[in-house]
Amino acid sequence: MKSSKTSRWGMCMKTAGLVLLLAAVPAFGASAQQSYGAYADSKTFLEQGQHGEAAQKAAKKEKKVAVIIDDFGNGQGGTQEMLSLPIKLTVAIMPFLPTTQTDAELAHQKGYDVIVHMPMEPKHGNPKWLGPGAITSKMSDEEVRRKVEEAIDNVPHAIGMNNHMGSKITGDERIMSIVLQVCRERGLFFVDSKTNYHSVVGKLAANMGMPPVANHIFLDDSHTVSHIAKQMKAVEAYALEHDNCITIGHVGTQGKKTAEVLKNVAPKMQEHVSFVGISDLVRDIWGWQPSPILPSNNN
Ligand SMILES: [Zn+2]
Description:
This is Divergent polysaccharide deacetylase family protein. Residues 1-29 form the signal peptide. InterPro entries: Divergent_DAC (IPR006837), Glyco_hydro/deAcase_b/a-brl (IPR011330). Keywords: Signal. Strand 5, helix 11 (201-207) and strand 6 form a beta-alpha-beta unit. The chain has helices at residues 3-15, 17-23, 30-34, 36-40, 43-48, 52-61, 79-82, 100-109, 141-154, 173-185, 201-207, 225-242, 255-269, 278-286; strands at residues 64-72, 90-93, 113-120, 158-165, 189-192, 213-214, 217-218, 244-250, 274-276. The chain folds into two domains: 1-51, no CATH class; 62-286, TIM Barrel (Alpha-Beta Barrel), CATH 3.20.20. The longest helix has 18 residues, at 225-242. It starts with a helix and ends in a 13-residue tail after the last helix. Strands 1, 2, 3, 4, 5, 6, 7, 8 and 9 form a nine-stranded parallel beta sheet that branches. By secondary structure, the chain is an alpha/beta fold. The structure holds zinc ion.
C-alpha cells in the first residue's frame, strides 16, 4: 500500500469513521462485511468510492442502480473481471453448466446477489444458445414445473430468477404462470429481462402478489466501450429521474468491455447513485418478503 493511500485512508477514518464508510454501501449486508477485507485492498473502492459528503448526499437521495450481469455459468469472457468489481452486482447464472456452482459460490462470498438465469425459448434465434434445462413452448405444465424446480436446485444461493432469451415464453400466460408459481413457492422473485415487448410477466406477477420487476436498460446490446458507457449514462439519468434503475449486461464475447466500463464509471456515478442488489430493490420498492412453502437449499 502506498503512503498516500494510507494517509487518505487514515484521514477518512478520522473524519468519517469506518462506520460511515460501511454505511455508505447500504446494500452490502453481513456477508459483504465479512468479505470487506478484500474490498479494503481495492484502490478504486477506497480512493474513488463514496465517503464524506458524497456518501451523505447519495444516502439522502437514495437513487439506486441494480446491475444484473447475465450468462454466468460457462466460464464466459469477463467472468473474473465481473466477479472482482468493487460494486454490488446481481449475478444471473445459468443452470447445469461447468461453472454454475463455482460462480454462484464466489458471487455469494463477494456479497453479490445470485439469481437463476433460466433458459427459455425465444421467438427467433439459435436454439443452441439456450443451454441445458430450457423451457420450451411445447412442454406440459408438469414438465415446466420440473424444469424450474431443477434449475433452482442447481444454482446455489439463488434468491430470484430472470429469463435467458425467452421472447416466446415470456408472452405465454400458461407457462409463465407456472414459472412464477414455482418461484413464489421457493421464495424467489422473477425479473423480466424484457426480451419481449409483449411480455405477460409483469401483469401475472402483480396478479399473484409478486413484485413486477423488470429490466429498464440493456447495457451492452452493442459491443463497444463507447456504447456501453453511453448506456451507463442513461442508467444514471433514469435512476435520478425515477429513483431507481435496473440494467442488464452480460459476460461473453463483450464481457470484458462491459466490466471495464463498469469499473471506470462506477466511482463517479457513486456521487449520485448507490449500486444495490436486485433483492434490495424488490424489498425497498415492493416490500417483498419471500415466504417459501417448500424447503430450499438456497439459504
Ligand atoms: Zn442470457
